[in-house]
Amino acid sequence: MSTPFAHPITVRLHDTDAAGRLFFAHLFRHAHDAFEAFMDALELPVDTMIRSGQLLLPITHAQADYHLPLRHGDRVLVQVSVADLRRRSFAIQYAFRTNQDALAATALTVHCQINVDGTAVAALAPELKTALQSFT
Amino acid sequence: MSTPFAHPITVRLHDTDAAGRLFFAHLFRHAHDAFEAFMDALELPVDTMIRSGQLLLPITHAQADYHLPLRHGDRVLVQVSVADLRRRSFAIQYAFRTNQDALAATALTVHCQINVDGTAVAALAPELKTALQSFT
Amino acid sequence: MSTPFAHPITVRLHDTDAAGRLFFAHLFRHAHDAFEAFMDALELPVDTMIRSGQLLLPITHAQADYHLPLRHGDRVLVQVSVADLRRRSFAIQYAFRTNQDALAATALTVHCQINVDGTAVAALAPELKTALQSFT
Amino acid sequence: MSTPFAHPITVRLHDTDAAGRLFFAHLFRHAHDAFEAFMDALELPVDTMIRSGQLLLPITHAQADYHLPLRHGDRVLVQVSVADLRRRSFAIQYAFRTNQDALAATALTVHCQINVDGTAVAALAPELKTALQSFT
Asked: Which residues on A lie below 8 Å from C16 (Cβ)?
């Protein structure tokens, strides 16, 4: 996969609010769904990691910029890429593109690998680092 | 479409709670997503109806039965069918089947057609009635 | 406490949808918040139960009836009472009353006590049964 | 009100995920609830603004930093203050403090005032500017 990973979504009724737009916090839910689909594609599913308890990746930072209102029924492609890859952490970038290829929003999440007891790891798990490297 | 309409979902991290299961209320969110996908397939998209304001279908009743816990990462097929079709209302039935074909949960939503001013309609819109009839 | 337990809520922007009403599934989220507040008041907090793992109460059934649309900014009182108390399960009833004392919605959740391994308990925990009895 | 506005929350079951922590996106929902409570206190309720359609304040940017895991049952105070006040926009800062006064998370939302047709306003509404100024 040399092109960015893409996750299609449709803005559903529960995503919108009385102002008729996607409620801003729900963009982060969609970003995380796209992240989980991305990790599934890398054969490192987040559910398996949490269940086995060997590889925890809590989010330490999240941000989003909203350029265009997203409305009920809009078809959006969430493009996922690796924005940063560090010793103990990495950043995932999300571009929300409408089916007219307009950039409606961008988001970023920073994930930090920790041990089960909450202490910092010496370095990212090798299989995780290798998998992410091909998307930087 | 003679077979029931099916909408695939994956149980994502935000669907689960600290007890490690799908939080019960989120089943209804997935049911409504399946309903919206069903209406899209019938070429009666809910977003267009709400936007045009000519056909409002508020939910008057909802219920669900939970048979098996759904967990993070589970792949589920939501089968949608029309359980009841009345003069001014209809009921949609949802069966949540795991990829081992176990029935994890069922849900039902009752939708009532009203006018924009909130008053009852004389009868369901003909195009809606016709479309739903083929799924009863 | 001889009167029903009451939990005040305000309908916030994220509760509403593009149709300008409370999205039906969010009523169940508010019902469960009211249930948790009720259990806090009974000194049987749900979080402690889940954390200690000794007393699990999964929901086996949920239902709601929607009488009046709830809109952004509405102040609502959720009245909680025990609708049914059985050997291994109990039902909680919720009445959503507006500040004009109109009954906007009702909901019901059925909770079943199970062991940590998922098997049925012989009977509800005595402290739980005693606490709930005073609200029937 | 010379001290920052404070909005108390309890981390409820639906806020948490299978990793046993507050799901990161839900922090933004709580931040917005705190913002709405803050605007209620300023007698500029968001619901009235959206309903009247005269004063629209879409969020153009949101960010959060997560310092400590928040868990089911945690009591948290959300302190709201005005971080920035510009010609057409303003930024709201949120500090999530545990009842041991630890700073669990911070968040920021940037709101931009627009006209109903989506065009930029010349300047923030005077009553809004005046109200926010006392919290900078």
From this structure: 17-18
